[in-house]
Design goal:
The chain contains 11 helices and 2 strands; from the N terminus they run H-H-H-H-H-H-H-H-H-E-E-H-H. It has 257 residues and is mostly helical. Strands 1-2 form a two-stranded antiparallel ribbon. Helix 7 packs across helix 9 (132-144) and helix 8 crosses helix 9. The longest helix has 21 residues, at 170-190.
Length: 257
Amino acid sequence: MKMTIKNFLMLELAKRQTRNSAYSLRAFARDLGIGVTTLSDVLADKRSLSKTNLEKVSVKLMLSPMELEQVWLEYKQNYQKDLEVDEHTLVDEDTFRLIGDWKHLAILNLAKIPSNQAGKPSWIAKRLGTTTEEASVTLERLLRLKLVKKQESKLVRTSKPIVTTNNIPSMAIRKYHAENLWLAEKCLHDEPVTRRQFVSTTLAINPENLPRATELMIKTRNKIEAMLEEGPVSEVYTVSFQMFPLTKLQSTKGDKK
């Protein structure tokens, strides 16, 4: 499939409708911030997105650097042309995918399991519940980045744990968290309670205490990670903390309405 904005929209719509069968084209247009008629016409090849709408949609779809380059090439030149990938583009794409696609970190941690067979895409696909093709593409990227190496059918990590820095695109981090939330929802419905744990609370807070709460969350996460990694490891989990507002900021007298 060619990398066009229409195809990205169709893939995203199909993904959302898989998660929610009642998700409509109107709801998709609302979430993208464009008109439903515009969206319908683009999907039917009756019109192209304007520059403003293309910028909106690219952000909402959280497109990677390579994907962005392709859709803008399509917009500017208005004819088919193969994407020319230089080394810089490839590095940006790999960096984005490494953080933004959950499967990369999952495979890196599968490699920690002593009896892993993660050198085989079919084994990865079975353990992570993905397709063999997805597992193969992800494995190839990790090998290209020299984060792992194969020892026959086994995969061995060659790098230290991955941490985010200022060099990681913020869109990739947003995509990573968005995928984690989707994975958590899927797990909530698919996995027995003995294999998962969800804890949440709703409360009124003093916003001035948020920095202290964030620091405490990080310290707690580190302690939980250290405890879970004790002894022989055999499964891969995500430990995730969220803290977000339910209320919107109130305007003050000095604010313009």
